[in-house]
Design a protein that fits this description.
single chain, Oxidized Rhodanese, domain 1, 2 domains, five-stranded parallel β-sheet
């Protein structure tokens, strides 16, 4: 791994057609081959989990880690906490409005002629959230770096430290796709049987069962299938599992042709499940943005525990 300083470095200026992304994931080799290409933006979306008051998990921006410990050369920082979420939302990580998202995309140098590759230094859930947001706002020229920064570093690829300034003058126009989202009413309709659908929960198994958790009420939404986001990737490389293994994890939900809704605690890990399902060819997936943060806060919304 080679470190170089990149203080005040600017990202490449758009001048030629952006590279085509062949799938929701791109390999480290694909990125290495295209790094520095005009109209390609690479973004680090890392968020760090820390212990908050009372031992409850809290989240902070990964910006400092990006600056000090390094990032893919030329990568800008995409701040999910401050920029790619609605600060006025009722729950953490609430999806931004169309106007907020347009500003967020432009702030990292992405316009409607850009290809974006996003990664994180976790198990891909933060990068998946950015990927999902772009697609939900009408843009498909986006992919997640398979294995993220962990795999990139493990392969001894170059890493820069310091800030990278996003390309100036970017303008992004959003085209909302409301079918990418499910609200509480839609989830309740699936639970009651009024609407056809499969619910997939991306939280860890112990949270799913109700054995652990930090919300006021524990458990999962009735009728849900468990597919923890942490189990979607190889623990050594953080790369997503092969399709046949992913298919086994989602087997129960895939047995039905009904629409799939993924959820978790706050809509982050759910995006990783949605990405895995896209790899398996399912295009009828929605993310419940409020997820358990919203559902569990309603004393009348049913939860199931199996612990």
């Amino acid at each position: 791994m080679t470190f170089t300083a990149s203080l005040s470095t600017s990202a490449p200026t758009a001048a030629s057609p952006a590279p085509f992304v062949p799938a929701p994931l791109v390999s480290t080799q694909w990125l290495a081959d295209h790094l520095g290409t005009d109209s390609l933006v690479v973004a680090d979306a890392t968020v760090l989990q820390i212990a908050g008051p009372g031992g409850k998990p809290a989240y902070i921006s990964g910006d400092e880690e990006y600056l000090v410990h390094g990032h893919v050369p030329g990568a800008v920082f995409a701040d999910i906490l401050e920029t790619f979420s609605d600060p006025h939302g009722r729950h953490g990580f609430a999806r931004p409005t169309s106007e907020q998202f347009e500003q967020a995309a432009a702030s990292i140098g992405v316009d409607n002629d850009t290809t974006l590759v996003v990664y994180d230094n976790a198990a891909g859930q933060w990068a998946s959230r950015i990927w999902w947001l772009f697609r939900a706002f009408g843009y498909d020229r986006v992919a997640v770096l398979d294995g993220g920064l962990k795999k990139w570093i493990a392969e001894d690829r170059p890493v820069d430290v310091g800030h990278v300034t996003a390309r100036d003058g970017a303008r992004f126009t959003a085209h909302e796709r409301p079918e990418f989202w499910a609200d509480k009413h839609a989830v309740a309709a699936i639970v009651s049987g009024e609407s056809a659908g499969s619910l997939i929960c991306a939280v860890p198994q112990k949270e799913f069962s109700g054995a652990s958790g930090n919300r006021a009420r524990a458990g999962h939404i009735p009728g849900s299938f468990s597919a923890p986001a942490s189990r979607l990737v190889d623990r050594t490389t953080n790369a997503y599992l092969a399709p046949e293994l992913l298919r086994q994890l989602f087997a129960e939900a895939l047995a039905s042709e009904a629409r799939i809704v993924t959820y978790c605690g706050g809509g982050i890990a759910a995006a990783s499940d949605a990405l895995a399902l896209a790899l398996l060819g399912r295009e009828d997936v929605a993310v419940y943005d409020g997820s358990l943060n919203e559902w569990a806060a309603d004393a009348d919304a049913p939860l199931v525990t199996t612990a």
